[in-house]
Amino acid sequence: MLIDFIINFCILFTFAILTYIPFQNRLKVYIPSSKYTPYILGILSGFTGCLLMLTAVSISDFVIMDGRMAVIALSGVLGGPVATIISGTIIGVFRLFMYGYSTTSLIAGSSTIIVGVVIGFWSWKKTMTFRNVHYFFGYSIVQTSIVLGFLGNWKFETWLAIISFILYSILSFFIIFVILKQLSSLFEKIKHIEEMSITDYLTGLNNNRKFQEYTYNLLSKGEIFSLLLLDIDYFKKVNDTYGHPVGDEVLKELALRIKEASNSFGGIVSRNGGEEFSVLLPNTSENKSLEIAELIRQAIEKNAFPISTGEKLAITISGGISTFPQDAATTHELYKLADEALYLAKASGRNKVVHTNQNKLV
């Protein structure tokens, strides 16, 4: 009997892992379309429940012990209400004809279908998560136990069967629940580490590594795009006068304004280091890039920057632009030309934007 329990639990464990990791996109496994996920999970859960019944441990003439209720509950967490209804229906229908049609199988099968439908509609109103799934699972255990008691006329043997069913169901569900919760926590930490590796710690923008990646992708497409480099005018004075903490406040606010001004144009904003920022502008020609850069410059100049001392600082920026493919064909060359244009903007009075191709002041 112990071997039968182990086999049944291993099937349940395999189902949980093989559905959790790919269908929650934890390892970036390709799924054709997320809209089909609830249906696929529902069907997989249903067939898993059927397999669990085929390897179930027989307690009495009308009680078989397996992890099907855990499958129905977990399908709701992973695939939502639709997955729960589908899995409960498949498992219930299979139970109906598993040992040949009878009054007992009709009641047991119908009960499983009802569990799936009730949990499904319940989770439509209250989304199932790892935090509340035990309530849904508890309901399924209570209803099934009542049905078992009814079928067994509440005899002493029936009570033993019900207690065995409850203990196995809770134990198997708890083990799977803990494992999946730990996996979820682990993957969240990995995701956080990945985000930190491509995100500027201060502003939340892309860092230079992510900037390089985006630029490479744009170059690979071969379509026109522009690179805008921006630098704060006289930022050293801000740090010297108010200190670096206030300087960080300015950088954060600047990042926010650049991002807001660039969003409508599909701009990809990065902090490349210190007070230097970049904006990649896909499908943007030379003239259009100058227009966008001017809008960004004005968004910085028009409104003073509030700081923690209660004062407001007048901040301006200078910018340099280069455009692919007319100006350069590599990331290094584009950056170099944009940086030279930025230097020209600084040298000619600041608070302006220069395009490397035209040396045109805006």
Describe this structure in words.
The chain has 362 residues and is an alpha+beta fold. It folds into 2 domains: 2-198, Arp2/3 complex 21 kDa subunit ARPC3 (Orthogonal Bundle), CATH 1.10.1760; 208-361, Alpha-Beta Plaits (2-Layer Sandwich). It has 11 helices and 10 strands. A 6-stranded mixed sheet has the order 4-5-3-8-9-10, with helices on both faces. A two-stranded antiparallel ribbon has the order 1-2. A hairpin with a 5-residue loop joins strand 1 and strand 2. The longest helix has 43 residues, at 156-198. It is elongated and about 95 Å long. 38% of the residues are buried. The mean pLDDT is 86.
How would you sum up this structure in a few lines?
This protein folds into two domains: 2-198, Arp2/3 complex 21 kDa subunit ARPC3, CATH 1.10.1760; 208-361, Alpha-Beta Plaits (2-Layer Sandwich). A hairpin with a 5-residue loop joins strand 6 (305-306) and strand 7. The mean pLDDT is 86.
